[in-house]
Amino acid sequence: METAIPNGNAGDEALVDAGVGTNAIKYIWDEQDGWVQGGGVGASTFADLTGNPTDNSTLNSALNSRADKVISPTSGNLAALNAEGNLTDSGYKSSDFVTGTETIAFTNPIPFNKLKTRLEQKTVNENIVITPDTNSIVPGAETYAELIGDGVHNLTHKNIINIGALNYDKTLNMLNSVVYQRIGNRFYYQIVHQYVPDTVAPYVLYAQIDGGADANKIKIYYNELLSTSSIPALTDFTATGETTGARNPTALEYLSDQIILTFASNFNSAEAVSLAYVKGVNPIKDEDDNETAAFTQNVFNEQFVLDRTNQIFDFEADKISITDATQVVDVSGTKYVKKWIDLSGVGNDAVQSNNTRYPFILTDANSNKGVKHKKLPQVPRKII
């Protein structure tokens, strides 16, 4: 990329990198003639490096081989260079960092317009050459961008010295970060491999009906955030109730890691409900475009709770467990029997030993929330 060369002041000197293995060229500012070549002054301190961003071993090897060419001052901004020429945290001073807005230009422009901030996420779908624009960089500024590698194209980095890993906020599924740093007249980048791409499809944890005002809704809970860029059709979902039959939702809502399906009428409190999903034109997927598979899921119907009468409750469920929840005092002093039968035919009774009535919540450790609730007739029962 061609950039304008800044003017100097009387007596200013500048070194121009002439490439690997070639002497750097000294220029001296002349008020009448501008920059005038003053002769070679030593080996180049920079290297032209090419490497795939998913493997920076080539980059590190080339940089370390040039470590002896990196200047090692005893004071100033580069006072804390380690043996490999990497700048450690102790090399920074509070005065090194500035506030405000600057622009750093690139050949395939990746705009850097803020300091110490993650600015842009760019998919690497072309061969990108990153070269600093010397007229728009503030000394001491640091910033970075995310580059998502496609596994095909390369990044070519020019005039780079590795300064080691810097500690920034990690963004979910960030594959590569390019960190920029300028100290004096040198430019620094860091390729940071933070995460690998997410290739796992989201899956259902459980689905449930809360009851009450939401008795006509099924809430589907997933293991991760879902993308709102692909919204399935209402006909992709079918809920089948034991007494209400099969039907499609009339509306759906995405809420973080949930999908809320609304139906035209309520589900009954004592019925078993299952939910089926088929992949359509706009499938359910996560933010990395991994599509969830079709499923048939039993729905956990939470509407059924004990009332304030002496009753036996019979539950048919697969590996069901019962957990006491909110306590409600029954002033009559009666006791309650909670009875449930799993599908293996094993019966279980739990008698409350005091005068406290407990509603109970049905859970399934295996994430199978299907429960059949069968409410027996109210029969007076005395517990001895």
Show the helix and strand layout:
Layout: E1 13-16, E2 23-30, E3 34-43, E4 48-51, H1 57-65, E5 118-124, E6 128-130, E7 142-149, E8 155-158, E9 176-183, E10 186-193, E11 204-209, E12 217-222, E13 237-241, E14 245-247, E15 251-255, E16 258-262, E17 273-277, E18 295-301, E19 312-317, E20 321-324, E21 328-329, E22 337-342, E23 347-351, E24 356-357, E25 360-363, E26 371-375
Parallel strand pairs: 5-7, 6-8, 11-18, 19-22
Antiparallel strand pairs: 1-2, 2-3, 4-8, 7-9, 9-10, 11-12, 12-16, 13-14, 13-17, 15-16, 17-18, 19-26, 20-25, 21-24, 22-23
Task: Write up this protein.
By secondary structure, the protein is an all-beta fold. The protein has four domains: 1-44, no CATH class; 47-193, no CATH class; 204-301, Immunoglobulin-like; 312-375, no CATH class. It has one helix and 26 strands. It has an eight-stranded mixed sheet with strand order 14-13-17-18-11-12-16-15, with no helix packed on it. It has a four-stranded mixed sheet with strand order 5-7-9-10, with no helix packed on it. Strands 23-22-19-26 form a four-stranded mixed sheet, with no helix packed on it. A hairpin with a 2-residue loop joins strand 15 and strand 16 (258-262). The protein starts with 12 loop residues before the first strand and ends in a 9-residue tail after the last strand. Residues 40-150, 153-196, 305-338 and 349-384 have low confidence and may be disordered.
